[in-house]
Recover the amino acids of this structure.
């Protein structure tokens, strides 16, 4: 069983997934961040591979992406850094990014390389659904890599059901239509969250975008199986570094 599926089988609520940009703050921080997050009790990691035009991301993640590229991070280098990752962690690992670098690398080569280095899932928000189903679904299945798809408050019920049927692992429930790091009031999203819960999806859900502290994490966990936190974590390591004590302090404040 894929590590993502195993995680949701043994833990139904309070799952904490942390997103960080590979190559930020420093080029070779990737494995240190992975190790320190695991030792801090995080359940899953989303490793962002940088792209020069990250349209869905707010200024904090955009800056981390630009800095990582400036540092020299590429998809090829990231795979090289991750080749020893499974010596340090058995947590589910997800790669998140945009289609352009994947197309340049070669979609099938990308998926096979994910399997080779121990990646469990991929999030590509700008990959067309019909393209995935027609061209890549079979390759994902052959390599036991899960394609994690997003829904938003504007996604129709018909499309949500379609995404749910195509998905394995979990559905990424975007909390609002804003970019990452938005200051939306999570409590005002309860109608949307309740609507998704009432649909009885076959997949569990994780809530992302705007989860930044203990209160928003707690709210997300009331309406889904857990939360994804990116901007707040990247802001933290930009200001306080990636050392173990710094990361443990951040996670402790979230979970209290």
């Amino acid at each position: 069983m894929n590590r993502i599926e195993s995680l949701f089988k043994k833990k139904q609520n309070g799952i904490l997934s942390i997103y960080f940009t590979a190559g930020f703050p420093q080029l070779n921080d990737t494995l240190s961040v992975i190790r320190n997050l695991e030792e801090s009790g995080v359940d899953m990691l989303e490793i962002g591979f940088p792209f020069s035009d990250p349209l869905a991301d707010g200024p904090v993640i955009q800056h981390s992406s630009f800095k990582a590229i400036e540092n020299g991070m590429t998809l090829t280098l990231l795979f090289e850094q991750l080749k020893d990752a499974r010596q340090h962690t058995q947590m589910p690992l997800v790669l998140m990014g945009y289609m352009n670098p994947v197309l340049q690398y070669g979609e099938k080569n990308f998926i096979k390389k994910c399997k080779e280095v121990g990646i469990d899932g991929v999030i590509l928000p700008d990959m067309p659904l019909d393209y995935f189903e027609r061209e890549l679904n079979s390759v994902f299945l052959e390599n036991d890599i899960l394609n994690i798809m997003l829904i938003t408050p504007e996604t129709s019920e018909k499309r949500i059901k379609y995404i749910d049927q195509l998905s394995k692992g979990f559905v990424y429930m975007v909390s609002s239509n804003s970019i990452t790091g938005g200051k939306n009031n999570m409590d005002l999203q309860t109608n949307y969250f309740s609507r998704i819960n009432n649909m009885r999806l076959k997949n569990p859900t994780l809530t992302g975008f705007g989860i930044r502290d203990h209160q928003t994490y707690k709210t997300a966990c009331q309406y889904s199986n857990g939360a994804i936190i990116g901007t707040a974590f990247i802001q933290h390591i930009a200001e306080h570094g990636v050392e173990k004590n710094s990361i443990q302090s951040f996670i402790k404040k979230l979970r209290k």
Q: What stands out?
A: The domain at 3-255 is CATH 3.20.20.70 (TIM Barrel). The beta strands are 15-21, 44-48, 93-96, 121-123, 146-148, 150-151, 171-174, 205-208, 226-229. The two ends are 31 Å apart (CA to CA). The chain has one domain: 3-255.
